[in-house]
Amino acid sequence: MTTGVVVADDEALVRMGLRMLLDGEDDLAVLAEAADGRAAVEAARRTGADVVVMDVRMPGLDGIAATRALAAAGSRARVLVLTTFDDHATVDAALRAGVAGFLLKTAPPEELLEAVRRVAAGRGALDPDVVPGVVAAYGRTAAAPTRPAVLDALTPRESEVLALVARGLANAEVAARLHLGETTVKTHLGRILDKLGMPDRPRLIAWAWEHGVVTS
């Protein structure tokens, strides 16, 4: 099965490079390119794309606003932000807009390809270089007035996994810390996402800090 992708970036050379990279994979295909947010929304609607690789800073409608517009239009396309901006304000705005992944343009090509596949599969992707900043920022601002009742649905082991994932640990690190297999951690994480109604890992991390699930 081929994943259809729209590439949205205001730089033609960037779009060209992304098209060459993505089209070089048997399971990925670029269906359209867009130089601004409005064109990205239209291209996703017209092509029925699975994923939009979206820049943040574009003329007219920016990538964050375009993400909101896609959601409002009921588009099934999932957005992977690809940007040079890693400040917390940008990451936070992207997560709140509903992006499924956030990746920096400094990421190696294989990491981008994996992120596109993860986003298409509904698993989400968050650049490792961004996680510490997200954790630090939410750790500073999050308040924990009461424990969210929905957490009662988690098993003790799932609660442990959630706490470590929220602190930015990768699956392999969680597995090592809890003396579990990595596949077992992935299974626990999938159940956590289902029980908490979270679409992907990036928003799970943000939610955990916002609601005081972890505070340090």
Please describe the structure with a list of short key phrases separated by commas or semicolons.
globular; 216 residues; Rossmann fold; alpha/beta; 6-stranded parallel β-sheet; 13% strand; 6 strands; 51% helix; 2 domains
Please describe what this structure looks like.
By secondary structure, this protein is α/β, with parallel strands linked by helices. It has 2 domains: 127 residues, Response regulator (Rossmann fold); 78 residues, Rossmann fold. Helices cover 51% and strands 13% of the residues. The protein has a 6-stranded parallel β-sheet, sandwiched between helices. Strand 1, helix 1 and strand 2 form a beta-alpha-beta unit. Helix 2 packs parallel to helix 3, helix 6 runs parallel beside helix 10 and helix 7 crosses helix 10. The longest helix is centred in the C-terminal third of the chain and has 15 residues. It is globular.
Topology (SSEs and partners):
Blueprint: E1 3-8, H1 12-23, E2 28-34, H2 37-47, E3 51-54, H3 63-72, E4 78-83, H4 88-97, E5 101-104, H5 109-120, E6 125-126, H6 131-141, H7 156-166, H8 171-178, H9 182-196, H10 201-210
Parallel strand pairs: 1-2, 1-3, 3-4, 4-5, 5-6
Helix pairs in contact: 2-3, 6-10, 7-9, 7-10, 8-9
